[in-house]
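User: Structure please.
Assistant: Input sequence and predicted structure:
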Amino acid sequence: MDRTGFDQLFDMSDRTVIVTGGTRGIGLALAEGFVLAGARVAVASRKADACEAAAAHLRGLGGEALGVPTHVGDPDSLAALVSATVAEFGGIDVVVNNAANALAQPLGQMTPDAWTKSYSVNLQGPVFLVQHALPHLVQSPSAAVLNMVSVGAFNFAPALSIYASAKAALMSVTRSMAAELASSGIRVNAIAPGPVDTDMMRNNPQQVIDAMAAGTLMKRLAEPDEMVGAALLLCSRAGSYMTGQVVIVDGGGTPR
């Protein structure tokens, strides 16, 4: 490897990245990382004002950015996200499936509506977004898909079994996608974050947050920015021989 090759390892210049749930928390941190690495980024979330604010913020970092209001649980909305991104930037190189909802219902109080709502966003949405983007990904010389799962896919998840099971299913889909799409030159990987200091985390009672932090070897929550390095690895040339993998980024809380 020479200096040019080394300098290109994490370079995302001339690549277009879609980040769902990209207006706050982990998603916004990932979008910032991709923009700073040189990518054009389309951020998607349900609220139009949040999308435009995030896009303006990313442009303020010196990058090209687009905000597209999107309901990840609606396949037609996902098709519109792909169309808007391609119309603005000319193609798609990377899809980051970060949007999620963490519906919490214990056994005995579960409703079919909660299962439908959770799985439509946490599982169906990522699958159909990749499907809509596929004609563009196959045209990219550096295509990658990154699915954000959760350590809940591995661990006991009392009261969160709907969310955790959807993330476990998305982990399985990640491996199936990787196998199906390898011949098209598309790499598919996942990150399983541990407890991260986001709005979703702060919706928990403080004693639950403290217990989650205490369950890690590092005895703290992650900052959203701490997911960026792993994401860039899996989506850039640095991870060119990685596919079908799940990278656990959890402060040492999940022995595997």
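The longest strand covers residues 187-193.
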